[in-house]
Design brief:
Strand content: 25-35%
Radius of gyration: 47 Å
Number of strands: 9
CATH class of one domain: Mainly Beta
Distance between the termini: 156 Å
Largest sheet: 5 strands, antiparallel
CATH superfamily of one domain: Immunoglobulins
Order of helices and strands: EEEEEEEEE
Number of helices: 0
CATH topology of one domain: Immunoglobulin-like
Helix content: under 10%
Length: 136
């Protein structure tokens, strides 16, 4: 007997591949609303370099004995008549310097901020140097 050959066809489902249609998205670019415009402060011209403040120096060349110190009292340059400012012992003399003396310094020496030097008050101009040999 002759055999009949049967073929079965498988149904192949064809799926149509859809290509993604890319549309350029039309986006509206939002134009920012104008904010209240702030006026920038005008630029200041660079300030000229300040000259360093003049150095005013007071020197006392005196020996007040071991353990004693020289103080200054006065006005100008940060001095006061009520409380003395200790001077520094530098190279065999008592010294004090300041850049805060705008219009000069009037002063007097004291031993241990208690014993006043003899004579009148002394003065030195701003930026100047006074070298004295006070007597007590």
């Amino acid at each position: 007997m002759a055999t009949k050959k049967t073929t079965t066809k498988k149904a192949v489902k064809k799926t149509a591949t859809k290509k993604a249609v890319t549309k350029k998205a039309v986006t509206k670019t939002a134009v920012p609303k104008k904010a209240a415009a702030k006026k920038a402060a005008p630029k200041k011209a660079a300030a000229p370099a300040k000259a360093p403040a003049p150095l005013t120096t007071i020197v006392a060349q005196t020996d007040v004995g071991w353990g004693n110190s020289i103080y200054l009292r006065g006005e100008g340059g940060g001095l006061s008549w009520e409380k003395g400012t200790l001077m520094d012992w530098v190279d065999g003399a008592w010294s004090w310097s300041t850049t805060a003396a705008k219009s000069g310094v009037t002063f007097k020496f004291l031993i241990n901020d208690e014993v006043w030097s003899q004579g009148e008050d002394l003065t030195v101009a701003s930026g100047g140097t006074s070298i004295s040999a006070p007597l007590f």
